[in-house]
Amino acid sequence: MCIFLLHGLKYHIWLNAKDKFKMIGYLISLRLFIYFLYGHLESFKEHLLRLQPFLYALSFSGEIYYMYPNIFSNVQVILKTMDIICKRELPSDSIFSRVENKNQHEGTDSHMEHLQDNQKSYEVNNLLWHCVAAWTCVQKNSPHLNNVLEHLTFHKTQLQNKCWMDSALALLVLGEAAKLNMACLKTLMDIMRDFLLTIMSVQNQKENGSVDFSWAWIIVSIYITILTEICLYAAISNLRKTAFIGFCDCKSSKKYILPLDKSEEQPELRETSFLGLLDYFSSKMSDNCDEVIWIGYYDLVYNLVKMSWELRGDEEQDGLRNVIWQTLQKTKNHEKDERIHNALNIAEAELNDPTDPFTRVSSNAGDEIFSKYIGWRVANILSKLLFPSADILPLKKPLIKPHKTKYLYKKQDAMKKKVLHFTVR
Predict the structure, then answer these.
(1) Closest Cα partner for 131 from 171, 161, 160?
(2) Rounded to two decimals, what is the model's pTM?
(3) Exposed/middle/buried for 12, CB within 10 Å: 0-12, 13-18, 19+?
(4) Residues 275, 280, 282, 287, CA torsion sign
(5) In angstroms, rounded to a whole number, what is the distance separating the alpha carbons of residues 39 and 42?
(6) Which of 13, 16, 20, 25 is nearest to 55 (CA)?
(7) CB–CB of 379/172 below 8 Å?
(8) Please, what sign has the CA dihedral across residues 328, 308, 289, 284?
(9) Key word Cell inner membrane present in the record (predicted)?
(10) Nearest by Cα to 296 from 192, 185, 170
């Protein structure tokens, strides 16, 4: 897998093939990290040593994948998880430690502060802990959810920590809770708004060179992927609508369909809904804009294509699909930036490949996109790790399985409420 990733060719057909290997590597690295948190990798040091040369070479692949953030972000997750694992399991032989030692004079931040002094465990930060607690509360219908979310918001600044692996997992878990609960969705969008405002404020202060947020685009990319999944797979239509349009009147959403002209007054970042981010990032695009801006815009357009494709034939979401389709058409017609057109072309190339199990749905009824269950599985495993006792949060109703969330109410005809639809005039 590592060898295949290293020999990148800048053609869409080859990028499509490597995207599958990237996803495999992403899934493997997440699973290894979970095993690491459980302490199950102590007997596999020899295997980790064998991975060292490939990981070292993969760490220099940025030039190949930088213009393709949908691939590059997952490569960064692979490297970061293995960075943390190798420093813990191979403290003296880790290639990551050697690279870090060479860069210490540049102030390179270490992730070793999350490894306890006895080198026996990894300490998750408070933000991740509270996100897992929130997910557990939602699953078990606990009355403590509001208190947990209040404490979670108190730790929102930890999203700015350079050790961003905990932040990525925190967003992933909270995103799963947001698929089932509106309060969790609002908390997710609020902490991401504060994160973006802080990042952009620091980036605009050119003289402030003491703070390094060069990694911030990874968090933005992960958040947009999570937001896309909420738009597609949230339990009820109101959650899906809110994730896409935001906490606003549906009638006012038409103004967001067409990105603002660059000459107009640039909008403020009021909320981090899908259209809110599209409006914000598109208005700030330029040839020399910050990578958070163009990568965020790239990921939004890339995921718009994916959503439009997946919602085909879904009569209950005709309105959402129409809004997405119109947004895509106007983006194609008005956006001149080559990077954004790359996002359109790559997404369409992936969807035209019938053999991709990660981004396509088979024509067979019942087959679904495999990758949409990743967040639920990570949240479930972390919940069992951090809250092993079933008595911590009393169980009020049966757990909602991931494969039932999208059409939870569709199967309950007797209790079915009127579905909210988008209207576009």
Answers:
(1) 171
(2) 0.80
(3) middle
(4) negative
(5) 7
(6) 25
(7) yes
(8) positive
(9) no
(10) 192
DSSP summary character for residue 115: B
* Tokens at 88, concatenated: 């813990």
Q: Measure the N-to-C terminal CA separation of the chain; round to a whole number of Å.
A: 48
Residue-wise over 35-63: b if at least 16 C-beta within 10 A, else e?
A: ebbeeebeebeeebeebbebbeebbebee
User: Under DSSP, is residue 355 helix (H, G, I), strand (E, B) or coil?
Assistant: coil
Asked whether the CA dihedral 212, 303, 294, 422 is positive or negative, the reply is negative
Q: Model confidence over 236-249: pLDDT tens digits?
A: 999 999 999 998 75
* DSSP state string for 124-191: --HHHHHHHHHHHHHHTT-TTHHHHHHHHHHTGGGGG-S-THHHHHHHHHHHHHHTT-HHHHHHHHHH
Place of tokens 């064998």: 50
Residue 137: CB atoms within 10 A of its CB come to 23
* 3-state DSSP of 254-282: HHHHCCCCCCCCCCCCCCCCHHHHHHHHH
Task: Let me know how long the chain is.
Answer: 425
Both tokens assigned to 365:
């009824």
The list of the chain residues with pLDDT below 70 reads: 1-21, 89-122, 204-210, 249-266, 353-372, 390-425
| Coil vs helix vs strand at 399 | coil
E-assigned strand segments in 213-340: none
**Separation between Cα atoms, residue 74 and residue 53, nearest integer Å:** 19
Measure the CA angle with vertex 152, ends 151 and 157; round to 5°. 115
